[in-house]
Amino acid sequence: FSRIAVFASGTGSNFAALAKAQEEGRLGGGRIELLVSDRPEAPVAKRAEEAGIPSLLLRPKEFASRKEYEEQIVEELRRREIGLIVLAGYMRLITPVLLEPYAGRIVNIHPSLLPAFAGKDAIGQALEYGVKLTGVTVHFVDGGMDTGPVIAQRAVAVEDGDTADTLAQRIHEVEYELYPEVVAAFAAGRVTLEGRVATIRA
Ligand code: GAR
């Protein structure tokens, strides 16, 4: 699983954290070979360019169907012999076109302790609910919205007076640390799954 494609739609700060980890030799044997983005104008595309990582920028709207959009991605992933897909703020559901060939080899990061606050704006959802503890989850991707087996979680306390910005900042810091660690373990084949229970072996 050492050849990695990162999928991202937006700012790309997690993409940058992964690229930095790779540069510093913290991604195990993992190598980011490709950025895939559904928003060619997103800042993440620029970050890939700066990091010298090739990108595949496709607008889903320019395809006849979601299926054809993903088929094009799969073709490119095959061509580059990608073994692991890392979603980092990729804001769309993955369909069986991608899920089937990459079963058990797609991971995502989500800014809450799943199964709490799945879907969009998890940080806003946590603040509105009033929880005192939220965090970050890295999980396998299945056909649902943030429903796949959990690989790793880290808690972040909600502090009095937190705003979406201040809480997001602390959550992001945890993401930048946790995601490279999990991706490194995955790339090294140290993540196993039994039923719904994932384990990172030492
Ligand atoms: C991250 O906080 C990630 O956890 C979240 O989007 C952000 C992307 O930021 N993902 C989701 O909410 C997925 N449901 P980034 O583009 O700066 O890495």
From TrEMBL:
> What family name appears in the similarity comment?
Belongs to the GART family.
Single GO BP term: 'de novo' IMP biosynthetic process
SUPFAM superfamilies reported for this sequence: Formyltransferase
Q: Identify the enzyme class.
A: transferase
The GO molecular function terms of this record are: phosphoribosylglycinamide formyltransferase activity
Q: Where is this site: Raises pKa of active site His?
A: D146
The identity of this protein, by name, is Phosphoribosylglycinamide formyltransferase
Q: What does this protein do?
A: Catalyzes the transfer of a formyl group from 10-formyltetrahydrofolate to 5-phospho-ribosyl-glycinamide (GAR), producing 5-phospho-ribosyl-N-formylglycinamide (FGAR) and tetrahydrofolate.
Binding locations of N(1)-(5-phospho-beta-D-ribosyl)glycinamide:
G12, S13, N14
By its UniProt entry, which HAMAP family does this protein fall under? PurN (MF_01930)
Under catalytic activity, the entry for this protein gives: N(1)-(5-phospho-beta-D-ribosyl)glycinamide + (6R)-10-formyltetrahydrofolate = N(2)-formyl-N(1)-(5-phospho-beta-D-ribosyl)glycinamide + (6S)-5,6,7,8-tetrahydrofolate + H(+)
Matching entries from InterPro entries are given as: Formyl_transf_N (IPR002376), Formyl_transf_N_sf (IPR036477), GART (IPR004607)
Where does the record place the catalytic residues?
H110 (proton donor)
**Gene source species:** Paenibacillus stellifer
* Positions of (6R)-10-formyltetrahydrofolate binding: R66, M91, R92, L93, I94, N108
Q: Which UniProt keywords apply?
A: Purine biosynthesis, Transferase
Point out the gene that encodes the protein.
Answer: purN
What pathway does the UniProt record associate with this protein?
Purine metabolism; IMP biosynthesis via de novo pathway; N(2)-formyl-N(1)-(5-phospho-D-ribosyl)glycinamide from N(1)-(5-phospho-D-ribosyl)glycinamide (10-formyl THF route): step 1/1
